[in-house]
Amino acid sequence: MKEVNEYVALVIEQSINSIVQMTELERVNEHMPKILEVVKGSLNEFLQVYGMSLNDVKALVYPKDARMKELISLRAFGLSEIDAVRYYTAMIMAQNGTVSAPNMAVGKPYFVGNPQVDALVNQNQPGGAKKPE
After folding, report:
1. d(CA 78, CA 81)
2. Exposed / middle / buried, residue 49 (Cβ in 10 Å: 0-12, 13-18, 19+)
C-alpha cells in the first residue's frame, strides 16, 4: 500500500501541475472542477490495475513556498503585483530592522543624513519641496 500511496501522490501532483502551470495563481480556484476531473481520470486509470475506482476526488491546492503564500495574500487584499512585491519586501526589511522599510512600502527613495538631496530630487514633482527663493 505504501507504493500505491507514493505513486498516487506523484499522479496527483502531475495532474494538478499540468493545469496550474498554465493558470494565473489568482484564477486557480476557477479551474478547480477541471483540475479535479483530470486528477480523477488519472487516478482511476492507475487504480483500475488494482481493481479499485474512485467516486469522488477532493483536493486543496496551495503553494508550498512561504514567499508565494505571502505574495498571494497581499494580492488578495487588492494590491497590484508591484505593490504586493514592494510591501512584501518592506515587511522583510522591517523584520530585519531596516529603517528604510516604510520608504520601500510607498516606493520612495531613502536618503541617509542629507535632507537637501531629498529636497532637490522632489522639487520638480507635484507636492514636492519648493525651491528656496
Report:
1. 9
2. exposed
42 within 8 A of 14, measured Cβ to Cβ: yes
Instruction: Look at the block and give the residue holding cell 496527483.
Output: 12
Amino acid at 92: I
Q: Can you spell out the DSSP letters for 36-51?
A: HHHHHHHHHHHHGGGT
Structure confidence by residue, pLDDT tens digits, 9-52: 888 888 788 887 888 777 777 888 888 888 888 888 888 888 88
Alpha-helical runs (H) found in 21-100? 32-47, 66-76, 81-95
Question: Is the separation of the CB atoms in 53 and 44 below 8 Å?
Answer: yes
Q: How many CB atoms lie within 10 A of CB 1?
A: 6
pTM to 2 decimals?
0.54
- Residues contacting residue 23 through CB under 8 Å, at least 6 positions apart: 31
What pLDDT, in 10s, does the model give residues 41-52?
Answer: 888 888 888 888
